From TrEMBL:
SUPFAM superfamilies: TT1751-like (SSF103247). Residues 1-20 form the signal peptide. This is DUF302 domain-containing protein. It comes from Candidatus Thiodiazotropha endoloripes. Gene3D superfamilies: TT1751-like domain. Residues 55-117 form the DUF302 domain. PANTHER family: INNER MEMBRANE OR EXPORTED (PTHR38342:SF2), SLR5037 PROTEIN (PTHR38342). Keywords: Signal. CDD domains: DUF302. It comes from the Bacteria.
């Protein structure tokens, strides 16, 4: 499994499919906005994680008389994993649960982004949970790939 994850990450970065901007991992989607959202949610739920909420920023903009291209925040996670991180540093709860954003840019391209988990671990100097770091990183890469690639 570890070898597959390493190969997948190498492939994504080598062909320019993923990029990290300020700790945000961003991937273009091969699917529509709705399909990308549905595929991401299915991947998360298929891994027995919980989708806590979806925040439709476009709908919020519309309610105040403004327009915004489709933009949806998916809040998801695992109380088991989150609690493990917060027992290392309770302040990590400010960044938990995990989040992913799906949006359509001004060129009508669909994107998926999520915070690189290394930022969370580094921000709170969580050095006693290396297995969790690898698991979270691998899971996010897997979910993002399932959501954006055939």
């Amino acid at each position: 499994m570890k070898t597959i994850t390493i190969l997948l990450v190498s492939l994504l970065f080598s062909v320019g499919l993923a990029r990290a901007d300020g700790g945000l991992v961003t991937l273009p989607s091969q699917f529509s906005f709705e399909e990308t959202v549905n595929r991401f949610v299915a991947a998360v739920e298929g891994a027995e994680l919980k989708v806590f909420s979806k925040i439709d920023h476009s709908a919020g903009a519309q309610k105040v008389g403004q327009s915004l291209r489709p933009t949806l925040l998916i809040i998801f996670g695992s109380p088991k994993v989150g609690t493990a991180l917060m027992t290392s540093d309770q302040r990590a709860g400010i960044d938990l649960p995990m989040k992913a954003l799906v949006w359509v840019d001004d060129q009508a391209k669909v994107w998926l982004g999520y915070n690189n988990p290394d930022r969370l671990f580094d921000r709170f100097a969580i050095n006693d949970r290396e297995k969790v770091r690898k698991k979270v990183t691998g899971a996010l890469q897997k979910f993002a790939s399932k959501a954006t690639q055939p």
